[in-house]
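The record is given unchanged here:
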Amino acid sequence: MLTFLRAQGLAGADEIPEAEGLAGGVSSDIWRVRVRRGGGSESIVVKRALARLRVAQVWEAPIERNRYEWRWMEAASAAVPGAAPKVLAHDEAGFFAMEFLGSLPLWKSELRDGRIDAAFAGRVGSSLAAIHAATAGRGDIAATFATDTNFHAIRLEPYLLATARAHPAHVAQLERLARRTAATRLALVHGDVSPKNILVGQSGPVFLDAECAWYGDPAFDLAFCLNHLLLKCLWRPEHAARYLESFDTLHAAYLAGVRWEPAAAVEARAASLLPGLLLARVDGKSPVEYLDREEQKARVRAVAGALLRDPPSRLQHVRQAWQPS
């Protein structure tokens, strides 16, 4: 890391910056580094992708995904200014540096602690749609983010295909979802739009951790984020009504911003994919850490299983199956 910082002009030849490892990542080493700036110091963030992720099951992924993460941040910021941290430097060895935004609250923490703002969820949806719209149909973006191998290794295999192996009754539908997602190439996809990767900025959401960046199906981003709002109903049931309000607001704002295809088409793909992602977060390679009771997992399996057997075409149908009231 020191070699990288010095080579990129972020640290002086005689400087050994103070560095602190940041917790929470399973796919990268992440540090907060204090470097000299003028007469004082400034915090930046340095990331390095890991070849083997820190999860219980064996999960390996190409480290060149790091290159696509900082490129996604640049593309997203061009589409929606402020939607991603500013990239400061990068190299081909798997390192990149970006601005430190540690003063901004994490959306996951806000949701956990009951500070649930449906209007902010709507801004997540509209920002995501704006990024998709700005990159849809662009051959230059498609060529830059032709990362099918990465996306298969980081998303399709550990989520849908690993879950299919755990659930033989649903293997056909889960494999169909994986094939359809892999074959749909419409816009620049983040791939990990989760509340843990979204900062609550003053002017809107700031998206982090775009290691899964891929030119593919924008419905994946929509379904991936909505999935977390459903699962959090089991994590903090006292806030379930407000999580569901955020679910409604986010997808309505997103669909209002769809310009590259009929909104009903992307909604149908997101709605049918969502049950597979629900099931993946209890029985795939990356289960959510906050659902640790069997009754919680049983609820997810029951709802997701029913929806996989009878795939929905509307996101409201998924919501109603999750909480009929």
